């Protein structure tokens, strides 16, 4: 079975009736690129850079970061790579940046909030990413955006990083695309306004589900309540896609839900044509996609969207998934 799946690495990701979906990889290191490439990833949809900052005595320098981003850009061989700026706090901590203990770490000091508070660190990272844009199709992704003001502040720091590079006479792509994670309900609700300020959205279902449902993604005791197929989540997804379409920007999904083949009918129905997932999931999802008829899948998804019960939606999607080989 594994050998058979491996044969799909170079096969195009397309449904039986001709609908293409771009399948790219979530990575946290240069090493992950090997599995991604081996499994036929069409670029990197999410490079989680926090792991570059972890397990070390101090912040990585601009040069150290640049070398890593450049290597990933080169390995992608012209395919897009989406580099997410530092998303620490909550479940991810740095030994050399002691953060205060918080009552609710997931509602606290994390992601873009830290970057906007520590603009020195943020600008260093953006400068390194921009320099890598001279070596591949690099895009920049801001995590945990909850308002237009935060996004404008992040863009201002990006503009400063560009000025700095202009002063140095350094080479970089002035049109580097920038996007935001849609992973906070507020962002999904104001997606129309946010869409006017960016080139793309990447939906982070891991956090979006926890925040929409008020279910801590790390808490075992309530893990059964963490259901990405809850109708409230599906409506947030729909709102986000519609805002993106209205503004003519692209939208992808990069949370765990993207690597779950039961979700395929939802993507087809919602009009999501780009998924990013762990490199280990790529071939399994592609196999399922190749055996899916989009017209049937859409009908299944439409029925799901009418249901108010998360468990029933999940059952329906699971049944549809097990009916294809
Ligand atoms: C997400 O929240 O869905 C996501 C992709 O980011 P992370 O899992 O790194 O928080
Ligand atoms: Mg997240």
Automatic annotation (TrEMBL):
Main location: cytoplasm
Subcellular compartments: Cytoplasm
Keywords: Coiled coil, Cytoplasm, Kinase, Magnesium, Metal-binding, Phosphotransferase system, Sugar transport, Transferase, Transport
Region forming the signal peptide: none
Protein name (database record): Phosphoenolpyruvate-protein phosphotransferase
Organism (species): Paenibacillus terreus
Domain PEP-utilising enzyme C-terminal stretches: 3-291
Biological function: General (non sugar-specific) component of the phosphoenolpyruvate-dependent sugar phosphotransferase system (sugar PTS). This major carbohydrate active-transport system catalyzes the phosphorylation of incoming sugar substrates concomitantly with their translocation across the cell membrane. Enzyme I transfers the phosphoryl group from phosphoenolpyruvate (PEP) to the phosphoryl carrier protein (HPr).
Catalytic activity annotation: L-histidyl-[protein] + phosphoenolpyruvate = N(pros)-phospho-L-histidyl-[protein] + pyruvate
Membership in a protein family: Belongs to the PEP-utilizing enzyme family.
GO molecular function, one term: phosphoenolpyruvate-protein phosphotransferase activity
Requisite cofactors: Mg(2+)
EC number assigned by the record: 2.7.3.9
Keyword RNA-binding attributed: no
